[in-house]
Specification:
- Strand 3 and strand 4 form a beta hairpin.
- By secondary structure, the protein is α+β, with helices and mostly antiparallel strands.
- It folds into 2 domains: 125 residues, PSTPO5379-like (3-Layer(aba) Sandwich); 105 residues, PSTPO5379-like domain (PSTPO5379-like fold).
- The strands form 2 sheets. Strands 1, 2, 3, 4, 5, 10 and 11 form a 7-stranded antiparallel β-sheet that branches. A 4-stranded antiparallel β-sheet has the order 6-7-9-8, covered by helices on one side.
Length: 262
C-alpha cells in the first residue's frame, strides 16, 4: 500500500472516494482517533462515561452541537473523513457506509477518542515489531470479563487489543506506551489471557488473530471499541462510529500527546 504521510492529503482522498483502505500505517506521526457520534440528548452522559473510563475511552475532542467540524484537530469534515462508518439503531449495527452526509442531523455531537494506533510510531523508534502491520491484518480485539464504570444509559464490558512482544522487550513496550496516556497508555495486562476472561487468542471478538511465537508474551491494552459496546447497550435511536481499522486521522502530532509523567 502506498504510504501517505500527510493527514490532510489522506482526508482529502477519503472525501473524494480515492482512499478506501485501513488508516493504520498511514500519516505516521499523527494522532488517529476513534469516532463516536450521538444525539445531543445523550452527549453529556457519553462524555461522563469517557471520563469514568479514560483508559478505554480517552476523550480527545468534542464537537459543538450540530457541527461536523473539529477545528482543534484539523480541517475535519466528519461527514466524509472516515473511510467507513458504522450506523447503529437501537443497539443494533444496521449497516456500514462510506459517508454520512444523508444522515447528518443538527443535534449530533461527535467525540474523538484516542487510539493505541497513535503510540505505535514510538514502538518503531524503540525497535519493537508491530505484528499486525507485519502480517497485514487489522489485529485482534477481545471482550473481557472486566466491567466498565457505567454511566446510564452507557455500560460495557472492557474490550482490549493484543500485541505480542518478545519476552526481552516487554518492559520496553510497557515504558513506551505508558508515555502516551491520552491514547490508551500502558497495557492493562501482561501474559495469561485467562486472567481477563479470554480463553482463545485465535478467536478474537473483533479483527483478526495474530501469530505468537514461543519467545513472545501477549500484552493487552484497553481499546476504544469499548465505546461501541457501550453504544449497543444504551440502545440509542441512532449512533454512528468509525468501523474498526478506519480511524479519523488528525493534524495533531503524536509527540503532542506524549508525557514523561506516568
Amino acid at each position: 500500500m502506498h504510504q501517505l504521510n500527510c493527514p490532510q492529503t489522506l482526508r482529502q482522498m477519503t472525501r473524494a472516494g480515492q482512499y478506501r483502505s485501513f488508516t493504520s500505517g498511514q500519516a505516521r506521526g499523527f494522532i488517529h482517533c476513534n469516532l463516536v457520534i450521538v444525539p445531543e440528548a445523550y452527549a453529556d452522559a457519553f462524555a461522563r462515561f469517557c471520563h469514568q473510563n479514560p483508559k478505554a475511552c480517552p476523550l480527545v475532542a468534542r464537537s459543538a452541537v450540530g457541527s461536523y467540524q473539529m477545528p482543534e484537530l484539523g480541517d475535519i469534515d466528519l461527514r466524509f473523513d472516515i473511510v467507513n462508518y458504522q450506523i447503529f439503531e437501537y443497539g443494533k449495527l444496521v449497516r456500514q457506509q462510506a459517508d454520512i452526509q444523508n444522515l447528518w442531523r443538527d443535534d449530533f455531537v461527535a467525540f474523538a477518542l484516542g487510539s493505541a494506533y497513535s503510540f505505535e510510531e514510538a514502538f518503531y523508534d524503540a525497535g519493537l515489531e508491530i505484528r499486525r502491520l507485519s502480517e497485514g491484518v487489522l489485529g485482534p480485539m477481545y471482550r473481557t470479563h472486566i466491567r466498565c464504570e457505567p454511566v446510564p444509559p452507557f455500560d460495557a464490558q472492557l474490550i482490549v487489543s493484543m500485541r505480542p512482544v518478545l519476552t526481552k522487550d516487554v518492559q520496553s513496550a510497557i515504558d513506551v506506551s505508558a508515555k502516551f496516556p491520552k491514547v490508551n497508555g500502558a497495557p492493562l495486562h501482561v501474559g495469561d489471557p485467562l486472567t481477563l476472561g479470554i480463553d482463545d487468542l485465535s478467536r478474537p471478538d473483533f479483527g483478526e488473530p495474530l501469530s505468537i511465537d514461543n519467545n513472545e508474551i501477549p500484552l493487552f491494552w484497553a481499546c476504544g471499541i469499548t465505546s461501541h459496546i457501550a453504544l449497543m447497550s444504551a440502545k440509542l435511536p441512532i449512533a454512528i462510529t468509525h468501523t474498526p481499522g478506519y480511524l479519523l486521522v488528525t493534524d495533531i502530532k503524536n509527540e503532542a500527546f506524549a508525557s514523561v509523567t506516568y
